[in-house]
From TrEMBL:
Protein name stated in the entry: AraC family transcriptional regulator
Alphabetized PANTHER family for the sequence: HISTIDINE KINASE-RELATED, TRANSCRIPTIONAL REGULATORY PROTEIN HPTR
Organism: Paenibacillus marchantiophytorum
Keyword line: Cytoplasm, DNA-binding, Phosphoprotein, Transcription, Transcription regulation, Two-component regulatory system
Positions carrying 4-aspartylphosphate: D55
Subcellular location: Cytoplasm
Alphabetized SMART domains for the sequence: HTH_ARAC (SM00342), REC (SM00448)
Listed InterPro entries: CdaR_GGDEF, CheY-like_superfamily, Homeodomain-like_sf, HptR, HTH_AraC, Sig_transdc_resp-reg_receiver, Tscrpt_reg_AraC-type_HTH
Domain Response regulatory span(s) in chain numbering: 3-120
Length: 552
C-alpha cells in the first residue's frame, strides 16, 4: 500500500474524493486530509506520504507553493495537481516544478483514479528499476574490474576479517589459495638521461617535469602489462595498480617463509630485467615480509613500501627486501589503523561490553613469543590512542582519571597481561561515561538554547527550523532528531504550542482583537491564526475568550 495525502480547502471535495474511490482496490491508502497548504506541509514532514493530491487555489499557502516546498525537501514524493480551466498560468508554473499528473476540474472519480494509477505505476517502475536483478547483474559485471581492484587495494590498506576476505574473493572470481603471502611494490625510477644526451642536459632539465608527467602513465601501463604477463606465466599471483604504482600479491604454495620469499624474488627479478631490456627504463622493487595469513597482507604491503624508502641509501634499479634492511620479528604485533579505528569508535559510541570485547581482540595473540620491547610499544600505542580520543572529545584528563594520573609510568607496573588489559578497559570505561554525560548535556543544552531562542522570537513570522539551526550553527537534520528525542515532539509542533500558549494568555488578559493577537504571536494571516487556534485548542479565539471570562 502506498500512502496518500489529500489537500483541498473544500470539505465536500476532500470527503468526496475519499468516499468515492475504492482505495484498497488501487493499492493506495489515504493517511490524512489537509484543508490548506501550510497544514499539508506539516503533515508531509511528519508522515512523508508517497503521493500528494492537492488543489491549487487554497488559503494561507496555495497548491503550487506547497508543491515547491515538497519538491525541495522530499523530491521522491509524487504530486498530482487539481486545476481548473481558468488556472492555466498556474499550470504553466506547475510544469516547471515537474508535477507528475494533472486532473482538470470538474473531474470524475475515474479521472482521478486514472491519474493515481499512472503515478502508482511510476513508483512501481522506479522501485522495479532499482530492484531489477538482471540490470544489477549487468552493471555488476561491467564494474567487476574496478570492484576487484578496490578489493585488492583494501587488502593492502587494512586488515579484514578472514571470512569477509574469502567471501569477497569468491564473489570477484579471485583465487587467494596459498600458504605464504607476500606484497611487493614496483616503482619506476624516473626519467633516464642517456650518455649521448649530456650536451643537451640544460634543455632536458627544462622539460623533465613535463616529460615525466606525459610519459609516466604510459610507462606504468607498460610495466603493468609485462608484470602481468610474467606473473601469469610463472604462477606468481595477482598484479594490480594501487597508489599509482604496480603492486604484486604473491601467492605461494610453500609455507616455509625462506622458500616462499626466494621463489617470489626470482620472478620479480625476471620482471626487473625484462623491463630494463625491453621497456628501456629501470625500476626498484620493495618486497615485504612473508605472511602465513592473507588477512595480514596489509602488514607485508606496509613493509614493501618501507623497503622502497631504502633506495635513497642503496640506489635504484634493484630489489630491496625489508628483511635484508631491517631486523624484525616476523610475528610482530602491530597496532594498525584498523585497530585504532575500532578502539576509538568503541570509546566514543560503543557499550561497556563492546569495550571489553574490543580489548580482548587487541590482546589476542600477544602471548605468542612477543618480545618485551614490542609488548611495551604495543601498550604505549593503545594508550596513545585512548588519550587521543580523550583529546578529540575535549575531556579533561585530570577530571576523568584523577589528579595523580601518570599513564606512561603506570604501564611499567603491571605483572601480567590481564592486569594491563583490565587497566586499559577501566580507562576506556571512565572515558565512555564522561563522553556520554557530555553528549547528553550537549543535547539538552542545544534543545534549551533552541527553546529559549524560539520563546524570544516566536512572534516573528519567518522563524523556521533552518533559522534556529543557523542561530545554533548546526544542521537541521541533526537538530531535528535531537529535538524530537529530548522533547517528544517536532520543532514545528513546539513552535505552534508556544504560539498557542501566548495567544491564550493574550486572549485571557487583554482586549486585543484576534488580528492584533495573530501578529503578536507570529501569524501574518489572521484567518490562518484562527484556523490553527481552533485546530489546536478546539474552539475559536472568540469562544476561548468568552469561556475564560465566564470561568472567572
Amino acid at each position: 500500500m502506498y500512502k496518500l495525502l489529500v489537500v483541498d480547502d473544500e470539505e465536500d471535495v476532500r470527503e468526496g474524493v475519499v468516499r468515492e474511490i475504492n482505495w484498497e482496490a488501487i493499492g493506495l491508502e489515504v493517511i490524512e486530509k489537509a484543508e490548506n497548504g501550510r497544514e499539508a506541509l506539516e503533515m508531509v514532514e511528519r508522515l512523508q506520504p508517497d503521493v500528494v493530491v492537492t488543489d491549487i487555489q487554497m488559503p494561507f499557502m496555495n497548491g503550487l507553493q506547497l508543491a515547491e516546498a515538497i519538491r525541495e525537501r522530499f523530491p521522491t514524493i509524487k504530486l498530482i495537481i487539481l486545476t481548473g480551466h481558468d488556472e492555466f498560468e498556474y499550470a504553466q508554473r506547475a510544469i516547471k516544478l515537474h508535477i507528475d499528473e494533472y486532473v482538470l476540474k470538474p473531474f470524475s472519480a475515474q479521472e482521478l483514479v486514472n491519474a493515481l494509477l499512472k503515478v502508482k505505476a511510476q513508483i512501481q517502475e522506479e522501485v522495479a528499476h532499482r530492484e531489477d536483478v538482471q540490470l544489477l547483474k549487468e552493471h555488476y559485471r561491467k564494474s567487476m574490474p574496478v570492484l576487484k581492484e578496490n578489493f585488492l587495494a583494501t587488502l593492502m590498506n587494512r586488515k579484514l576479517p578472514r571470512d569477509e576476505v574469502y567471501e569477497k574473493a569468491a564473489n570477484y572470481g579471485i583465487d587467494l589459495s596459498g600458504q605464504g603471502f607476500i606484497a611487493a611494490v614496483l616503482s619506476i625510477d624516473g626519467v633516464l638521461i642517456q650518455e649521448d644526451d649530456l650536451e643537451n642536459r640544460s634543455e632536458l632539465a627544462k622539460s623533465v617535469s613535463l616529460k615525466y608527467s606525459e610519459d609516466q602513465a604510459l610507462k606504468y601501463f607498460a610495466l603493468l602489462n609485462i608484470t602481468e604477463e610474467i606473473a601469469e606465466k610463472r604462477g606468481l599471483g595477482l598484479v594490480f595498480m594501487h597508489n599509482d604504482e604496480v603492486v604484486v600479491l604473491a601467492l605461494r604454495e610453500s609455507r616455509d617463509r625462506a622458500t616462499a620469499l626466494q621463489e617470489t624474488m626470482k620472478v620479480l627479478e625476471e620482471v626487473r630485467q625484462s623491463v630494463e631490456k625491453y621497456l628501456k627504463f629501470t625500476l626498484t622493487v620493495g618486497i615485504g615480509t612473508v605472511m602465513n595469513e592473507i588477512t595480514n597482507i596489509s602488514y607485508s604491503y606496509e613493509d614493501a613500501v618501507l623497503a622502497l624508502d631504502y633506495r635513497l641509501i642503496l640506489g635504484n634499479n634493484r630489489m630491496i627486501c625489508i628483511d635484508d634492511v631491517e631486523k624484525r620479528t616476523v610475528d610482530k604485533i602491530r597496532f594498525d589503523d584498523v585497530k585504532e579505528h575500532a578502539l576509538t569508535r568503541c570509546i566514543k559510541v560503543g557499550t561497556a561490553a563492546e569495550i571489553r570485547e574490543t580489548m580482548d581482540e587487541l590482546f589476542q595473540g600477544i602471548e605468542g613469543g612477543v618480545s618485551v620491547k614490542d609488548y611495551q610499544i604495543y601498550l604505549l600505542e593503545i594508550l596513545t590512542c585512548i588519550l587521543k580520543a580523550a583529546k578529540d572529545s575535549n575531556l579533561n584528563v585530570d577530571e576523568v582519571f584523577g589528579d595523580n594520573f601518570v599513564p606512561f609510568t603506570e604501564i611499567n607496573k603491571f605483572t601480567s597481561l590481564e592486569e594491563a588489559k583490565m587497566w586499559l578497559v577501566d580507562l576506556c570505561a571512565k572515558m565512555m561515561t564522561h563522553i556520554a554525560t557530555d553528549r547528553q548535556y550537549t543535547y539538552k543544552n542545544l534543545v534549551e538554547m533552541a527553546k529559549d531562542y524560539t520563546k524570544s522570537n516566536y512572534h516573528e513570522g519567518d522563524i523556521t527550523i533552518n533559522k534556529v539551526c543557523g542561530h545554533l550553527h548546526i544542521s537541521a537534520g541533526y537538530f531535528s532528531s535531537i529535538f524530537k528525542k529530548e522533547t517528544k515532539m517536532t520543532f514545528v509542533n513546539y513552535l505552534n504550542h508556544i504560539r498557542m500558549e501566548a495567544a491564550k494568555e493574550l486572549l485571557r488578559t487583554t482586549d486585543m482583537k484576534a488580528l492584533e493577537i495573530a501578529e503578536k504571536v507570529g501569524y501574518a494571516d489572521a484567518n490562518y491564526f484562527s484556523f490553527s487556534f481552533r485546530k489546536n485548542v478546539g474552539v475559536s479565539p472568540k469562544e476561548y475568550r468568552n469561556n475564560s471570562s465566564n470561568a472567572e
